[in-house]
Amino acid sequence: MSKFRLDEVDHQILDMLIDNTRVPFTDIAKKLLISAGTVHVRVKKMEDAGIIMGSSLVLDYDKLGYSFIAYIGVFLNNTSQTKFVLERINEIPFITVASVTTGKFNIFCKIRAKDTKHAKEVIFMIDDIDGVYRTETMISLEESINDKKRLMHTIFKNI
Q1: How many Å apart are CA 137 and CA 123, to the nearest integer?
Q2: Which pLDDT tens digit goes with each residue over 45-94?
């Protein structure tokens, strides 16, 4: 498949979808002075090209009772156990992000928990995984920046 090229209308559509993935195509069409069918076709082409992959939902974790955030650095007995450990980590729903890393840790995780007691339970779940040598925990005092939209707007302004 040849490389998909975005034009100014595609950029404008993406810009609006970045701000609100649930905005109706009719609203986008009105703002851009094009038909809703045109918006639909363009979004479908961007989905088919892999530029748009699904949509996102933003939750207020504080209101849901999961305001405690911690980062867990995971040390493995052997790097060959990475895939197995990641599969076990994936089974723990309170781990929202896990990255294989270079440097001090083999894997670095972000967890969301109700409180310190709950976080301790999640950390112990990680510690109990075969192949985990030890963990190191950092408690987040405040999540000051968590805004993927700024990056997406910047990317689309630069292409």
Answers
A1: 8
A2: 999 998 898 887 888 899 999 999 999 999 999 999 999 999 999 999 99
- 149: tokens are 């939209």
The answer for residues whose C-beta is within 8 angstroms of residue 123's C-beta and 6 or more apart is 70, 72, 111, 135, 137
Q: Exposed (0-12), middle (13-18) or buried (19+): which is 138, by Cβ within 10 Å? A: exposed
CB count, 10 Å around CB of 43?
18
Q: Is the pLDDT of residue 157 over 80?
A: no
Predicted local distance difference test score (pLDDT) of residue 2: 53
How are strands ordered across the β-sheet holding 68-76? 95-100, 107-113, 68-76, 132-139
151 phi, psi to nearest 5 deg = -65, -45
Residue 49 has a CB neighbour count (10 Å cut-off) of 14
- Would you say the pTM of this structure is higher than 0.90? no
The rounded distance, in Å, linking the Cα atoms of 112 and 65 is 10
Residue 60 CA: distances (Å) to CA of 16, 18, 105, 112, 143: 21, 18, 29, 12, 12
Q: Which residue has the higher pLDDT, 136 or 20?
A: 136
